[in-house]
Design brief:
Elements (H helix, E strand, L loop, with lengths): L1 H14 L21 E4 L2 E6 L6 E3 L13 E3 L4 E4 L13 E3 L4 E5 L12 E3 L4 E4 L13 E3 L4 E4 L10 E3 L4 E5 L16 E3 L7 H6 L1 H44 L24 E2 L1 H6 L6 H5 L9 E2 L11 H6 L1 E7 L3 E7 L5 E7 L6 H12 L9 E6 L4 E6 L6 H6 L11 H20 L14 E3 L5 E3 L33 H17 L2 E2 L8 E2 L1 H10 L18 H14 L10 H18 L16
Parallel strand pairs: 2-4, 3-5, 4-6, 5-7, 6-8, 7-9, 8-10, 9-11, 10-12, 11-13, 13-14, 24-25
Antiparallel strand pairs: 1-2, 15-17, 16-20, 17-18, 18-19, 19-21, 20-21, 22-23
The protein binds adenosine-5'-triphosphate (ATP).
Protein name: Protein kinase domain-containing protein
Keywords: ATP-binding, Leucine-rich repeat, Membrane, Nucleotide-binding, Phosphoprotein, Receptor, Repeat, Signal, Transmembrane, Transmembrane helix
Subcellular location: Membrane
Length: about 625
């Protein structure tokens, strides 16, 4: 019944902070077209208003007109007061997300009547009183999040088959019920609880004292043994490392700091090295048995940097100059280590020192020249290369803003620069164009390693795809063996990539841009998920708008575009290669759906949001 749900929504809207701006409440307007309102057969089945700065109490009576609700999401607002009792009338509710508000009072008993509930999240509120034992009636419940409230008393035995559970940060005491003993320690921390998985309860400890002493002694003995074995092993390792480093240092005449692994999200996977090595490229050339001079003039043949086009910014330089550059490790990737090198004349380049190149010089030149010939505004240009028997160096333009991965996941703290919708969609389009160009060079040309750490950003945040064409240069030991969240399911052999596998990886990258979540293979935690599977499950559960990155939710005007891009991402990440679109089609679809937003990108001031909530 639309008329009653309409008045219910208007009263909710005016009660919670007067945010009527969210909904067009003019006469005859259908609430089903209002943003955040989801309908099925004219009945309101979803209310999705996360992060809208709503405040105040929800008046009683609103929910009695919304009894078809299946999903209620009001998370990340400032709503307060008791939950209205008529929420208990919404017996169709499956998902309740009320976390990160200021709701108070006791957890209402009426929840136990919502028999269809699958997810209940009341975390980070001011709920007090005890955890109602009647929650055990919710036989379909899979997620129960009650952490960071003021709950006290005992934890009741719920005997539910929960996948996700957390009551940490309350004032609960007593023993943990057996049915919850398999939950992780973190689910109970910050209470006065005892028993498995936490420490044994005091009363029980006395009874088990003797057994405890015996077991304790055995465990202690085993521990001491393990420590001895570990310490001896470490000492041995250190000795062998010391020999290696000593011999390298002797050859080079200076210390090489330890290299940082690439893709280190904490440091943004980029530029986190912080140390500077004099002429790190020289280090690259000084391999056992070859001195620098021999290498450069080995056997009378002068090895040179071979440039494509007219150098970097019109400047060319020779190997000697590169060797004199001060360098900094950017990270270690699949194909070798990347350095930032600043030359005396001020030119900054990125140098990649390839490892495990199996090709002979002629074949290497042929392949690398094909890479050097690739020219597109969304690809990182290869400017020069150096080939000798023991060293292969590639010189690229240095991208000062780092990788998309670093930008999306690097700095979660305050002061983080959020990526607005216009920027995200223009990055999506740029990357799609770069890959489409690669694919247009031949049906057998594919990238093979598309991921957000291989999308680098220029100063004005234009995306450039890197690392293309390198997989063909190196041996199998350098191909990415780790199963990663970007790899298409049919790619069982990492070197057997295809254009359709690139489309899959691009689909995952789109999902990453839209959800703000980093993909990993397994369903791990909030930080890493099997993105295609996660998104599909969420969309199937009718809570599609829950998918998007919180930072995107303020761009109400672009919701339609976001949903369409999400659909495209899901199409790209289809399980079967044949059902995925081609990159050319993908580019066209993004051009069509994002063109209004992307036009705004021409104004550089729209790139970055101030994150002060003013545009919400
Ligand atoms: N041209 C460049 N300009 C600036 N930073 C770069 C450049 N090329 C690479 N980097 C940075 O150097 C680091 C290592 O890059 P590299 O390409 O070697 O590995 P990766 O992309 O992390 O992994 P993989 O080799 O599996 O693709 C990354 O953090 C990357 O962002």
């Amino acid at each position: 019944d639309l008329s009653s749900s309409r008045s219910a929504l208007i009263s909710l809207s005016s009660a919670v902070g007067g945010r009527t701006i969210l909904w067009n409440t003019s006469s005859n307007s259908n609430p089903c077209s209002w943003s955040g309102v989801q309908c099925k057969n004219d009945a309101v089945i979803g209310l999705h208003l996360p992060g809208f700065s709503l405040s105040g109490e929800i008046p009683t009576g609103v929910f009695s007109n919304l009894t078809s609700l299946a999903t209620l999401s009001l998370r990340f607002n400032e709503l307060s007061g008791n939950l209205p009792s008529d929420l208990g009338l919404c017996s169709e509710l499956r998902n309740i997300y009320l976390q990160d508000n200021k709701f108070g009072g006791e957890i209402p008993e009426f929840f136990s009547g919502l028999k269809n509930l699958v997810r209940l999240n009341l975390a980070n509120n001011n709920f007090s009183g005890e955890v109602p034992g009647s929650l055990r009636n919710l036989s379909r419940l899979k997620t129960l999040y009650l952490q960071e409230n003021n709950l006290r008393g005992f934890m009741p035995e719920l005997k539910l088959d929960l996948d996700q559970f957390n009551v940490s940060g309350n004032n609960l005491n007593g023993s943990i019920p057996v049915s919850l003993s398999s939950m992780p320690v973190t689910a109970f921390q910050g209470n006065k609880l005892c028993g498995k998985p936490l420490q044994i309860c005091p009363g029980l400890a006395a009874g088990g004292a003797i057994a405890g002493i015996v077991i304790g002694a055995v465990v202690a003995f085993a521990l001491i043994l393990m420590i001895i074995v570990f310490v001896c092993g470490k000492k041995r390792n250190k000795e062998s490392n010391a020999v290696d480093l000593a011999s390298i240092n002797k050859q080079l005449g200076f210390d090489i700091p330890e290299e940082k692994p690439a893709g280190d999200v904490e440091n943004g996977g980029y530029g986190g090295g912080g140390y500077s090595v004099p002429a790190v490229a020289a280090a690259a050339l000084a391999t056992p048995g070859h001195t620098k001079a021999e290498e450069v003039n080995g056997g009378g043949v002068t090895k040179k940097l071979v440039f494509f086009g007219n150098g970097i910014g019109g400047k060319m330089f020779d190997l000697e100059e590169l060797l004199r550059a001060s360098a900094e490790v950017l990270g270690k990737g699949t194909f070798g280590t990347a350095y930032k090198a600043v030359m005396e004349m001020g030119t900054v380049v990125a140098v990649k020192r390839l490892k495990d190149v199996i090709l002979g010089e002629v074949e290497f030149k042929e392949k690398i020249e094909a890479v050097g010939a690739m020219e597109h505004e969304n690809l990182v240009p290869l400017r020069a290369y150096y080939y000798s028997r023991d060293e292969k160096l590639l010189v690229f333009d240095y991208m000062p803003t780092g990788s998309l991965s670093a930008f999306l996941h690097g700095n979660k703290g305050a002061g983080r620069t959020p990526l607005n919708w216009e920027l995200r969609s223009s990055i999506a389009l740029g990357v799609a164009r770069g890959i489409t160009y690669l694919h247009s060079r031949g049906s057998d040309v594919s990238h093979g390693n598309i991921k957000s750490s291989n999308v680098l950003l220029t100063k004005s945040y234009e995306p450039r795809v890197s690392d293309f064409g390198l997989a063909q240069l190196v041996g199998p030991s350098s191909t990415p063996t780790r199963v990663n969240g970007y790899r298409a399911p049919e790619v069982t052999e990492p070197r057997k990539v295809s254009q359709k596998a690139d489309v899959y990886s691009f689909g995952v990258l789109l999902l990453e841009l839209l959800t703000g979540k980093a993909p990993t293979h397994a369903l791990l935690n909030e930080e890493g998920v099997d993105l295609p599977r996660w998104v599909q499950s969420v969309v199937k559960d009718d809570w599609a708008s829950e998918v998007f990155d919180l930072e995107l939710l303020r761009y109400q005007h672009a919701e339609e575009e976001m949903v369409q891009l999400l659909q495209l991402a899901v199409d790209c990440a289809a399980q079967y290669p044949d059902t995925r679109p081609s990159m050319l089609e993908v580019t066209k679809r993004i051009e069509e759906l994002c063109s209004p937003s992307i036009r705004e990108v021409n104004d550089p001031t729209t790139f970055i949001d101030t994150d002060d909530g003013s545009s919400r």
